[in-house]
Amino acid sequence: MNKKGFTLIELLVVIAIIGILSSVVLSSLNSARQKARDAQRVSNLTQIRTALEMYYHDNGSYSNPGWAWRSECNAWGGFAANDVIPGLIPTYLPSFPSDPSMNKTDNTSCYLYLSNGTDYALIDYAIVDPGFSYVSKPTFIDPTRDSGSNPCVYEGGALWSWKVSSSGGACW
């Protein structure tokens, strides 16, 4: 007997294999997207830190907009991106970067800046991104926001921001 075509069982097996392979590929893509967003955050914070150091070198102080946190997010002023750190754009950065998951209305994944002219702190506040881990980049851990009692030391508590700062701004 000459058989033409596939049996129902053969078709179901092929469909099951395709389904399994596609779920593996999709999970790999989601992981790659998460890593790309994390790399973007690290790059942004590093670029801003470098720009602040260049500003300090040229002006003898850090940009000092007054003793208050500034951000694009509503809870900290809702500033235009280029006004978060006055004097930085366009001389030291072409434009002010934002966290790839920023939500200005919910005040999550926001870059916040504080300076007294002598020191500064820049934090990526309340990062909301599925799969994100604050401890994935230990040099960016913000010990001030770890639910601990010592603002200058990471005590292993629940984190809610990454930070770059001058030495004097490390505990803000």
From TrEMBL:
Q: Does the keyword Transmembrane helix apply?
A: yes
Instruction: Give UniProt keywords alphabetically.
Output: Membrane, Methylation, Transmembrane, Transmembrane helix
Q: Which membrane topology describes this protein? A: Single-pass membrane protein
What sections of the protein cross the membrane? 6-29
Asked if the record carries the keyword Transmembrane helix, the reply is yes
Q: Name one GO biological process term.
A: protein secretion by the type II secretion system
Taxonomically, which superkingdom?
Answer: Bacteria
Q: Pfam families, from UniProt?
A: N_methyl (PF07963)
Q: Which PROSITE patterns match?
A: PROKAR_NTER_METHYL
Q: Which GO terms describe its cellular component?
A: membrane; type II protein secretion system complex
From the Swiss-Prot or TrEMBL record, state where the protein is found: Membrane
Which InterPro entries does the protein's record reference? Bac_GSPG_pilin, N_methyl_site, Pilin-like
Protein name per the record: General secretion pathway protein G
